[in-house]
Amino acid sequence: MAGGFAGGGSGGGDYEGKVTSFVIMTCLVAATGGLLFGYDIGISGGVTSMDEFLLKFFPNVYHKEKALKAGGNQYCKFDDHLLQLFTSSLYLAALVASFAASITTKAFGRKISMLIGGLIFLVGAVLNGAAMNLAALIIGRLLLGIGIGYANQAVPVYLSEMAPPKLRGALNVCFQMAVTLGILVANLVNYGTAKMAKNGWRVSLVLAAVPAIIMTVGAVFLPDTPNSLIDRGQKEKAKAMLQKIRGTNNVDNEFEDLIIASDMSKQVQNPWGNIMKPRYRPQLTVAVLIPFFQQLTGINVIMFYAPVLFKTLGFGDGASLMTAVITGLVNVVATLVSIFTVDKYGRRCLFLFGGSLMLVCQIAIGAIIASVFGQDGLGTFSPALGNVTVGLICIYVAAFAWSWGPLGWLVPSEVLPMEIRSAGQSITVSVNMFFTFVIGQLFLTMLCEMKFGLFFFFAAFVVAMTLFIFFFLPETKGIPIEEVNRIWKSNWFWKRYMPDDDHPNTNV
Q1: Model confidence band, residue 470 (pLDDT cutoffs 50, 70, 90)
Q2: CA gap 175, 355 in Å, rounded
Q3: Helix boundaries (H) for 109-199
Q4: Model confidence at 284, in pLDDT bands (50, 70, 90)?
Q5: Containing H/E element for 439?
Q6: What is the DSSP secondary-structure string of 301-351?
Q7: What is the predicted pLDDT for the residue at 504?
Q8: How many Å separate Cα 133 from the centre of its chain?
Q9: What transmembrane ranges does the database entry give (predicted)?
């Protein structure tokens, strides 16, 4: 990942090497960690729309939803704090776990964190599938959250450190691709299990064990990154690994830069204090604001609660689940667009285009819902208007999937210098998980209180985040990971925080 300097060696970071099948395979295996996150994002909304699940764990919601089918305020069908806690508790646990994961990742390597995350997630999936009461259900969700906290902390760092500069964006986006595949699979599973006469929700929840097993087994066989090996004093092994992933023996320039980066990071005694220094203000700002804005796009309104949202809009049980499958499929296809364009057109281009399209869609969706339900929540979508709304939601999901979805993980992971990398990645994951928790816990209540205005609320944040990208985020496309610090010196605003020398002050 980003070493915050241009050390000796290559100087310009023009390292020799090629894109090897070995590095592609290792990155693809590591990226399956995103399956954990994606499956759980998709699965919760589906099971919370299943009558059997609601009747067992949330009978009040079940009876209220059935009563409102005959008429009443459609905005408030599913407003229940315990129901929202089922979805959101996972992300609160992930927030706390990310701090422990940062210590593990730095001390023992990235693959160990992925292994730990997979094992804990596996236990949580089994407990959820076997839950007989709400307490067991929530405990299982908390364990899933710990697993996700470890995976989301380690996988983006692993991918950034293994990938060659010219393919770093595409390989890192594979993590988000795995997330979208996990969401799609979860939606398909929910659509199938909803047709089961009994315990369909148990099947949906316990199948989360499958991606956990994939990541856990994969982590056993993954190699450590050269950066991690150097950090732990295994320089000869690190050089051999670097030669293997670059497909050449001539890696002296890159290896020397990695050594310098590691030596400097070890001089930093307090990375958490160091990241607060003015010279790291750009990286800290990106580490906080990008995951914050990613969640305030409102995407989790769709990803968490798609079946619930579509039922609120008047779709039947089967239709709401199928519509969630359609949005999941759009999510996957659009993420492919990002993989093939992120290293060609750059991060800023995708951010700005995606954000603009999301804004248009959110305003249109809010206006349509306002015209149908108004303030009192009384009304019914016509089939034609329902199809238009679903189409707009699909366009919105596509815009997110090629911009803020993958780039919300890629950009923070590639701009953090080695000396603050673990702390910075923990901040990114924590901010992401905290606001994911907030949205998961409050959305149904906000929908009940703010009604159609909720979509305009999220649209305002899309305006703010698009302006932030335009004015404050420099392009990182194609810049060697050890040299990415120089981009801040060329930005009109951030250059004031950058010292004349490229070496961080390590007297902490």
Answers
A1: very high
A2: 21
A3: 110-130, 134-162, 168-193
A4: very high
A5: helix 421-450
A6: HHHHHHHHHHHHTT--HHHHHHHHHHHHHHHHHHHHHHHHHHHHH-HHHHH
A7: 46
A8: 30
A9: 19-39, 82-100, 112-132, 138-159, 171-189, 201-222, 284-306, 318-342, 349-373, 385-405, 426-446, 452-473
Rounded CA-CA distance 214/224 in Å is 18
Tokens read off for 239: 């050089």
Residue 505 included in any domain: no
Report the alpha-carbon distance of residue 92 to residue 81 in Å, rounded.
Answer: 15
CA quadruple 471, 160, 394, 186: dihedral positive or negative? negative
What is the average per-residue pLDDT within 260-268? 75
DSSP conformational letter for 497: G
Residue bearing tokens 């199928």: 322
Domain of residue 77 covers: 21-224+278-493
Domain count, the chain: 1
Phi-psi region of 72 (alpha: psi -120 to 50; beta: other; left: phi over 0): left
253 pLDDT tier (thresholds 50, 70, 90): confident
Q: What is the pLDDT of residue 467?
A: 97
Query: Are residues 26 and 223 in contact, defined by beta-carbon separation less than 8 angstroms?
Result: yes
pLDDT at 152: 80
**Interhelix angle for 110-130 vs 33-47, to 10°?**
20
Q: What is the CATH number of the domain that holds 297?
A: 1.20.1250.20
Contact (Cβ atoms closer than 8 angstroms) between residue 20 and residue 500: no
Cβ neighbour number for residue 467 with a 10 Å cutoff: 12
What percent of the chain lies above the pLDDT cut of 70?
90
CA separation for the pair 420, 274 (Å, rounded): 7
Distance from C-alpha of 322 to C-alpha of 335, rounded to nearest angstrom = 20
354 or 44, which is more confident?
A: 354
Tokens (6 digits) for 352 = 């700005």
CA distance 478 to 138: 43
Distances (CA, A) of 45 to 305, 311, 324: 4, 11, 9
What is each CA distance from 59 to 50, 191, 236, 308, 422, in whole angstroms? 12, 22, 61, 16, 43
Within-domain flag for 373: yes
The DSSP symbol for 266 reads H
d(CA 84, CA 301) in angstroms, rounded, equals: 12
161: in domain? yes
Q: Is the pLDDT of residue 342 over 60?
A: yes
Higher-confidence position of 381 and 495 = 495
Determine the Cα–Cα distance for residues 237 and 409; give it in Å rounded to an integer.
Answer: 29
In a domain, 140, yes or no: yes
What's the 3-state SS for 48-68?
CCCHHHHHHHCHHHHHHHHHH
Inform me whether the pLDDT recorded for 500 exceeds 70.
Answer: no
Token pair listed for 129: 């599938």
Digit-coded pLDDT (tens) for 176-215:
788 889 989 998 999 999 889 899 999 999 999 998 898 8
Report pTM: 0.78
The alpha-carbon radius of gyration of the chain (Å, integer) is 23
